[in-house]
Amino acid sequence: MDKKSLSQLRSEFFDYFKSLTPDVLEEFPDNFPISNPEGHMLSGKNISFLKFQAGEKINFTVVAGYRQWLKFDRQVRKGQHGFWIFIPAIIKTKVEENGSSRTVEEFDRFLMAKVFDISQTWDINSMGDEPTDSELRNNPELVPEEALA
User: Fold this and answer.
1) Which residues fall within 8 angstroms of residue 149, CB to CB, at 6 or more apart?
2) Which stretches within 55-130 are classed as H helix?
3) Which end of the chain is more exposed for a tag (fewer CB within 10 A), N or C?
């Protein structure tokens, strides 16, 4: 996909998204299951957005942001490009009731965040330095199973 501004990409996606029927959207999570490392499945809208951006380049399985991958001892490989998804922005407010306070979470809006598929990462604990493409080809154990599917 050509480099486009986020607003252009969003506009093109919304045009594409409007053409999808509710039946097709409901089938996205079943036909293209994509989760985050914690096991939470992405919505049909986010799955369709990822497919819209990547086409056939990547067979997404598990996606996460750059910092999220670091928490799972995985590093995004040099030169990899992320893909946008929609994430909810939640506002937390403290509410005082009967002398006690509690925090209430309320949906505000959607934000955009970049994610990378597990096939775009490598296991930090497997080697000292990032493996080269030839090392990955010659050592399939360094490539996540999900990337080989």
Assistant:
1) 59, 61
2) 66-71
3) C
DSSP-derived 3-state class of residue 122 = strand
pLDDT in tens, 101-123: 888 899 888 899 999 999 999 88
> According to the model, what pLDDT value does residue 146 have?
43
Counted domains in the chain: 1
Residues of the chain above pLDDT 90, percent? 23
Contact 85, 64 (CB under 8 A): no
What's the Cα-to-Cα distance from 146 to each of 17, 60, 104, 143, rounded to whole Å?
Answer: 27, 8, 38, 8
In a domain? residue 1: no
For 90, the domain range is 6-148
Overall pTM surpassing 0.70 (yes/no)? no
pLDDT value of residue 65: 94
Q: Would residue 103 count as lying in a domain?
A: yes
